[in-house]
Write a structure and sequence with these properties.
- Helices cover 18% and strands 21% of the residues.
- The chain is α+β, with helices and mostly antiparallel strands and 312 residues long.
- It has two domains: 150 residues, Distorted Sandwich (Glucose Permease (Domain IIA)); 137 residues, Roll (Membrane-bound Lytic Murein Transglycosylase D, Chain A), CATH 3.10.350.10.
- An eight-stranded antiparallel β-sheet has the order 1-7-8-16-12-11-10-14. It has a three-stranded antiparallel β-sheet with strand order 2-3-4.
- The N terminus is likely disordered.
Length: 312
């Protein structure tokens, strides 16, 4: 890998495409794989949910905050942080942080990325058969409160995929935080192929997605055969902010699953086109919420099945 290669440049990006705050200190955080494409593996705009006190508390506040859809935020831990300090900064409970990050072992380390909820409560992975009423009844909270913090709740419930923020909810007895935040999705093994060449960050984030970084203009391919379909909220996805997705393509596959390819620079297909696995549908770009001009990557989502390219 040459110093000037696209993959080399990708290594200097944070997840989501933004620059690392300190490449030397954060080098140990890079976990992923460099792979070739088509090789199978063995809501309305949501504002950044950060309180004023959280911004004041940080010397460079936005360098360690990564906004996520649904009101969630990724926070990169700074030197001197503790779970209780972070909870105070974001005006949420310590339990809320622990429940949203079941891998925490009672402390945090510099450079670690943790999920922050916009309110004290739980992050709940939607399952097949869930409804707004059944979730509200199970956790003894109001359905209107769920709607308030989840502008895309209808899409999440319809696709049986993603995380709902449950304000004021507590962890039920006999249920682990890990089980609550992990959706139970089928593993389709080698059904999907990687949609683009580049650096697969491999970290599963909102809407069952991973980010694959490479130079803007790199071809993006259909991960499986299917039909290009409109999004219920954003139409064909070729114009606008689209809740941070930017320009995207949504493909529905014969088995009922869907895949989304977001932040595209260019789209080369139209609604109704039938694509074979590996067909080019667009090019990697940095449209939408990509954290700056160096954020060239494709945000690859899978609906209705496990994302096979998530390695952490």
């Amino acid at each position: 890998m040459t110093p000037g290669s696209a993959v080399s440049r990708a290594l200097s990006m944070q997840e989501g495409g933004g620059p690392l705050s300190d490449p030397t200190e954060d080098a140990g955080m890079l976990v992923g794989t460099v792979v070739a494409p088509n090789v199978a593996p063995d809501a309305d705009e949501v504002p950044l949910a950060v309180t004023e006190s959280a911004l004041v508390a940080q010397a460079n506040p936005l360098t360690n905050l990564i906004p996520m859809r649904g009101g969630l935020t990724k926070y990169r831990v700074r030197s001197g942080d503790t779970i209780s300090k972070i909870a105070t900064q974001f005006n949420i409970s310590v339990d809320t942080i622990k429940w949203a990050n079941p891998d925490l072992k009672g402390s945090v380390r510099k450079g670690q990325e943790i999920t922050i909820l916009p309110v004290t409560g739980l992050a709940y992975a939607v399952h097949d058969g869930d409804s707004l009423e059944s979730i509200a009844a199970r956790f003894q909270i109001g359905a209107d409160a769920i709607k308030q913090y989840n502008q895309d709740y209808q899409e999440l419930l319809a696709s049986h995929d993603g995380l709902l923020v449950l304000p004021g909810a507590k962890l039920p007895k006999g249920v682990s935080a890990a089980d609550l935040a992990n959706p139970s999705l089928p593993d389709l093994k080698n059904y999907f192929t990687l949609p683009a060449s580049g650096w697969n960050w491999g970290e599963l984030h909102e809407h069952n997605a991973v980010d694959i970084a490479n130079q803007c203009g790199t071809p993006v391919h259909a991960s499986a055969e299917g039909v290009v379909v409109p999004d219920e909220r954003y139409g064909d996805g070729t114009t606008g902010w689209n809740d941070g997705y930017g320009t995207f393509v949504l493909v529905e596959h014969p088995n009922g699953t869907r895949t989304r390819y977001a932040h595209l620079e260019k789209v080369s297909v139209s609604l109704g086109d039938y694509l074979k696995q590996g067909d080019t549908l667009g090019e990697i770009g940095n449209t939408g919420n990509t954290h700056g001009p160096t954020g060239c990557h494709v945000h690859f989502e899978v609906y209705g099945a496990k994302n096979p390219f998530a390695i952490r």
